[in-house]
Automatic annotation (TrEMBL):
<feature type="domain" description="Sigma-54 factor interaction">
    <location>
        <begin position="143"/>
        <end position="372"/>
    </location>
</feature>
<dbReference type="InterPro" id="IPR001789">
    <property type="entry name" value="Sig_transdc_resp-reg_receiver"/>
</dbReference>
<protein>
    <submittedName>
        <fullName>Sigma-54 dependent DNA-binding response regulator</fullName>
    </submittedName>
</protein>
<dbReference type="InterPro" id="IPR002078">
    <property type="entry name" value="Sigma_54_int"/>
</dbReference>
<dbReference type="GO" id="GO:0000160">
    <property type="term" value="P:phosphorelay signal transduction system"/>
</dbReference>
<keyword id="KW-0067">ATP-binding</keyword>
<keyword id="KW-0597">Phosphoprotein</keyword>
<keyword id="KW-0805">Transcription regulation</keyword>
<dbReference type="InterPro" id="IPR002197">
    <property type="entry name" value="HTH_Fis"/>
</dbReference>
<dbReference type="InterPro" id="IPR003593">
    <property type="entry name" value="AAA+_ATPase"/>
</dbReference>
<dbReference type="GO" id="GO:0005524">
    <property type="term" value="F:ATP binding"/>
</dbReference>
<dbReference type="GO" id="GO:0043565">
    <property type="term" value="F:sequence-specific DNA binding"/>
</dbReference>
<dbReference type="InterPro" id="IPR011006">
    <property type="entry name" value="CheY-like_superfamily"/>
</dbReference>
<keyword id="KW-0547">Nucleotide-binding</keyword>
<dbReference type="InterPro" id="IPR027417">
    <property type="entry name" value="P-loop_NTPase"/>
</dbReference>
<dbReference type="Pfam" id="PF02954">
    <property type="entry name" value="HTH_8"/>
</dbReference>
<dbReference type="InterPro" id="IPR025944">
    <property type="entry name" value="Sigma_54_int_dom_CS"/>
</dbReference>
Amino acid sequence: MTRTRILLVDDEPGVRLGMKGYLTQHGFDVDEATSVAEAQEGFRTHRPDVAVIDYRLPDGTALELLPRLKELDAAVPLVVLTGHGSIELAVQAVKEGAEQFLTKPLELAVLKVVLERLVAQRRERQRLLADRSRAVRTQVDPFLGNSPAIRALRDQAERVRDSDSPVLVTGETGSGKSVLARWLHEGGPRKEAPFVDLNCAALSKDLLDSELFGHEKGAFTSAVAAKQGLLEVADRGTLFLDEIGDMDVAVQPKLLKVLEEQRFRRLGDVKDRRVDVRLVAATHQDLQGAAREKRFRSDLYFRISTLLLHVPPLRERAEDVPVLASHFLAEMGAHRGRGQVELEPDAERALMAYRWPGNIRELRNVLERAVLLSGTSRLSRGALRFESLLPAEEPLGEDLTLEELEHRHIERVLAREGGHVERAATKLGISRSSLYAKIKGWQHKGG
Ligand SMILES: Nc1ncnc2c1ncn2[C@@H]1O[C@H](COP(=O)(O)OP(=O)(O)OP(=O)(O)O)[C@@H](O)[C@H]1O
């Protein structure tokens, strides 16, 4: 569980000492400030979860400080303390944005309860904010199936889940990289904090910059108000950068700085801010190759790739296809208020033999379409329409001659290799010229 950070603003060292001792003992991290000016600076550079502010400060009152803090970040709850319980003061403080007003002498246990409640509310709001662009998903198990490949992935993922180091998730499109990233967050020590998900391929350099780092008012022409970056939203949580291979090279050194120093700067700002995020990055590209060819910074590559998780393509774990398929079919049945749709044996065989270039996403789509169009409770091979241009791979028939069997197998390997004769020949374990000879032979026979 992440520790809650409190900013304590009081000019009396004795009061601060007492409160800090108590709160630290109860699991809070406490930063201190002794004046309006120090409080503003501390709040700006090291954002607390809650600020506790004494009413009277050497250079002003809490009423002056409140709107300034609210301007910096309206989401941080503020608690005001005063020596004399005055209703007018309380009303005024609340008007200026204080969430809570407490009188001195303070019951430390009461303060603790108040802080815990405010922090829980803030975390909930932050979580909603982080999920604003996506429907909240129910937890998906990334390790459905029992193949050695998926069991090995689960073992590795469990080992890296609780660490703070960056993780790089590799795998083909649709194989479940995002699902795994979310699982790392939801099962790990940062689960109470936000999971922020950003697709680097979908944004131009400038947009990516301002989405990630935020900006100050006036940083560029359209920046009419200051904006929090997603790094700040993800503070204490997980930042998931999908398609990191497409991140603009100009943004990459800034991300490296965040990872190395836990600092970043909003566009147009003059000072750094501190942030504590765990990075999970994903890519379907060969990032090492991209780094070698200077399309991706190699220092960033090394920083993010110490913990590497590779999600296997579905075709390398065909035995998991029936498990995944019945999971999707149950889900679809429940969604439509119908019973479970079952697979006929010929459909199951076709699903297991197909190459799934679009992986789990494609499997789900194929089943969804089949369920919609067939309207029956048993799906046969004929109901399946595969997305890829490759022929669906049904098991080779038992009553073929050896020659027909060879012919079909060669066609299949050629299709898999995209018609590349040399690669197909290597796969088949024969020379290119023998493969050509065989193909020519069929052409003669009109095959
Ligand atoms: N283990 C799983 N159980 C159920 N659904 C899954 C599983 N893995 C992936 N999916 C589903 O498959 C689809 C693709 O998954 P996901 O978005 O995680 O893949 P990805 O590898 O991140 O793809 P891309 O590279 O295109 O971003 C999603 O709809 C997801 O819900």
